[in-house]
Hints:
This protein is mostly helical. Helix content is 64%, strand content 7%. The protein contains 3 helices and 2 strands. β1 (2-5) and β2 (8-11) form a beta hairpin. α1 packs antiparallel against α2 and α2 crosses α3 (88-109). 15% of the residues are buried. Residues 1-13 have low confidence and may be disordered.
Amino acid sequence: MAAALDGRDQVDLVLCAVQGDTNVQAVLERIDTRAFETYGIAAHYSAGLPVADIVGEVMRRALAAAAPGYVAAALERLVFDDELGLAPAQQMRLRDRAAEFDSGVVEDLTDANAPLA
Length: 117
């Protein structure tokens, strides 16, 4: 998604499912699955708590499970932002930081999981 701002196009860092990009779809599925599974596990182990506490606890855990994936995706997108003018070494460092948050997301976005032709 691009929007004009000060005469320049700005790339939206949010992953959008409507883009049709199979790599983005894989990332969204990875993050959603992780959050959903974590939500279910937390709900199971929080069963003895009051309802209000259960909802808060399971949401905190689900968001904590999803957050590293979104951070990794945002950092990976920044690597390709021409306006930042990053040197190749800086790009590699930023990509390494992204992989520290979630290597699977970086692999999905860079198509590292694609079958070999």
